[in-house]
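Supplementary Data S3. Sequence and structure tokens for construct A.
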Amino acid sequence: MKIKKKWLVVAFIHWIISFFTDKIIFSYSLTNFSTGKDSILSLYSMGMKAVFLVLLCFLYQMLAALVENIKQKERIKVGFEFGVIYFCCMLALLFCVYPGAWRMDEFGILRDATTLTPLFWQGYLTSCFYFFSLMLLPTPAGVVVVQCLVNSICVAYVCERMDKILRFKHKFWLLLPFFAFPVLDSNMYPMRMSVYVFLEMTLAVIFVSAIYEKRRFGIYEKIAVVVLTALCAVWRTEGIYYLIWIPLVYLFVFFKNSTQKKKEIGYVAVICLAGILVFLPQNLGNKMVSGDQYEITSIVLPMAPLLTEADKNRDAADLKAIDTIDKVLDTQIMLQGYAEGKSGISIFWSEPALIKSGYTKEEYSEFKQAYYKLILTYPQVFFKERVHTFTHSYGILMNTTELYESQDNANYIEFCEKYKGAGALNATLRKKVLTLLELGTPEDNTQKLSVFYGVYSMLPALVVLMVTAVFLLVKKQWAYLLVLLGILGKVPLIFVTAPSLLFMYYYSIYLIGTVVLIWGFMWFLGNMRKR
């Protein structure tokens, strides 16, 4: 692609303007060198602004290429139409629920983002997404707007590619699965999973398109696969297997018939290296800031019934396991809380004394070994709790409609008072639309209509993906099957480690499964009519 110099000038002007608009929401410093720490922070802030300049240059070059090619290349025009329609619909929805569906964790991400501080608990990539979104649009809703833009670009690519494959009579029916209530609600929810699933779907479709057309990746597709693999592997903890899976899929699809095998191996090495480089800051940040707490959240939910069962039997092995666990977690707090009807994760968040201080690395390692031994001793207890969590993972965190009504939620109060442009355009309309999307009762959005438990369940989508996998296996469509197994690979990981009963953990399965279900049904109907 030829560099458009005038668009570089536009990007630079935009960047200069951002220093002034940043003052609306950010409180970083570029010129404070009074102490060593302040100097480091100022240099770090300069680095973030430099990265933003690079992103602006890239975005404006892409925009220039789009404007130049849209009249000449029909497929780009088709994709543009899909993207514009979806983005305009999302902006209309955002107008109704402005400034979006803000719930809980994202308030902390936003607070830290205004000082350019990464919050590693939710992934430093989430914080980076907030940094640059707020530099583009310096208001909390700016994060939602950019999220909708990214998702719309992904939808544009996915629908354009699949339109070429499926050839529906009315192509815009391809947009149908992206208007499901859970998808619309998630688009308004500024958390990492809301963007992650669209990036993951795009990565899968890049492979599907190349396999179907029996062609190799173009240069832009190669770059996209490197970037998307790194993001999908690191942005969500359970996605780390993509660093191995995507290179394997690539080699399976392209290596055998390649005439330049050394280049293919080199490209795979680039994919792995990019992923590792993106992973290192997250790994370092977790160790510095979160310690073992993030990992413990994936343990406490099944830990509570396992400890209770061990405490009930109290044989020598059980007592040893309880004593070992007690060096890291206060087992009495866990047992008492569970006896009172609390879940392991609610005990984790409500009892600061649950995690003990001063334990050693060896004690933490022994703690995990004791946990695994309890699983092997009482597999039925572990499996029962995990199945319950799995089948009931349709929860929505907090009540999104109370943002402008609650008088005792510190996050809500700070959000409304601190940030410019954070107020609702129409609080009544916002409440009604969010209640509709989340299928709450008119009286109380936390009380759900019975249909909610079907609409917000990922189980039908998972069944569809599993049936599709079996179909591809029977048909010996190995390349497609490998791509699909990459999507399904996270299910057992989430099943074992999910810390609570939230829909967002399986949102990836829900969206991609819903897309396969609706598109597959439409394709079937179209072929039946032809007969």
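Construct B, processed identically:
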Amino acid sequence: MDKITIQNLSHGKILLILFVLSIVLLMLGNNLVDLTDPDEVFYMQTAKEMIQSNDWITPRIFGEPQFEKPIGFYYLLAIAIKLFGLTPFAARFWPAIFGVIGVLATYWIAWMLFEKKRLAFLSALILASSFIYLALSRSCLTDMVFSILVTIAIGFFYLSYKDKKKRDLGVILCSTVCGLAILTKGLLGFTFVVGTALIFLVLTKDLSGYLKNKILWLGFILVLAIAIPWHWTMFKLFKSTFLDVYFGNVHFRRLFVSEHPRINTWYFYLSLMFAGTTPWSLLSLPAWGSFFRKIFDMKKRTKELLFLLSWVIGIYIFVQPAQAKLSSYIFPAFPAIAIIIAVYLNGFLEDKVKENKYPAIFAFSSLLALALAAVPLVVLFMKKTILEFAKGMSLVYLASILAVLLAAIMAIFIVRKKYAKLIYAHSLVTFLFLTILLFSKSYIEPWVSCRLISDELNKIDKSDSVVLASKFYVRGVRFYTDRKMAVIDIGGKGFYTAHPIPFLNDDQKVIEFILSQEETYAILKEGNVEDIKRILKNMPYTIEEIEYIGGRYLLRIEKIKDLKNYII
């Protein structure tokens, strides 16, 4: 699409194009791969148990309350289960829907900021085709729903700032969405939005004037009215247990304790803001350079650019100091990052493509094309490794051919100076990646899901004995078998928030558990299989390996003689 095409389209038609593109990118094929370990099954199992117990207030897992997240996302999952059944599509339905909404909301915010259709379209396209956005839209996690609620709330704040006639409406809508964000993932649903707003108002020197609006008090009361009832109910029902887990463990412990020490670095989020925008990452480098040059140039600095800066900083300042770091924590900043990249690319196209002015676009586009062209060489070099996971090379060779074709298309656009088409062609990398991903189901599923190995267990054992599982697999096995569970994790420290199941982290606990059952079935990773063999080496038990699927071992552990007089 060139400038004339975009500029001449109505907003409705542009949004329709974005809607269709988003459905294809973010929802098509969401049912092909079963729920993955350990997080997707965690959220879906919680919604499943809420329905089974007919308790629509308290999140539950393994039959007991759990407070890792508020109730909002579980409500959505329960609705999806009622509509589509207990399926992968149901699990990923709402993240995909909110992903689509986020693309449209980004178009709206970019238009509200700059009133340029192509810039707004590019913003939405960049976001929709970024790898991190693709991943979170296709995952049963709270992050997409939460982040888009934050994005919409930030958009409504800017509406209330920009248009005084709509100030009251903007504040009310912003407050409503903030309340819903809190019910989805907690207090950050408020602090992200307020942090962004305060930074922006300070930078524009409009803080005192904006805070004089009495409607802000009504907005704050509205946030409390939406967020407090569920939290108060949980406190009344579970007292200190709720406070300790929900506030003490989930909210405040993350500030001081790292879940993944290896990624607890000062540069983790900065590198993620670069890598997460793939295939636009290389273009983001000159985009950020241009952005900060304008920010530091008083003549070129605008309130719109300050708003985008405030948005990114308003997220970053809350997540960076925390010791617990995850890629999803910085995710609410990505719509702003997409707009920043679009501002740069649209400026490039508006300048009638002066070749000497924007050499970085050609250089980085050429690097991307070369990387695509090099895929066959990488495949040949890694052939042995690939064959360990894939059943054959046909799909890999197809991916190589498609990558080379896309590289050729980009090269043609570069040589013929089809600059707009070159920019849009970057999104085709995502379509290529998604195509390969959808055709890779049979290769991927055994390694990411416990369904296949759990199906084998369901076929051979109909008892109600407790199943032993590795820590990483226990939620998935529970989801696919509905069996009582125990976890083996020798030397482990337990789950981030405690689960009401036996946690066997030393040899004696494992022995006592095995002794308690005539026959034990286990789904374990290789290391835990070795633990079991070592622990039971001198005990009268047989250990039978029944099945091996995707790194998971299905074992049957059986007594071979009477152990009544056996002394440990």
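The chain has a mean pLDDT of 92. The chain has three domains: 3-31+92-350, 359-444, 450-559.
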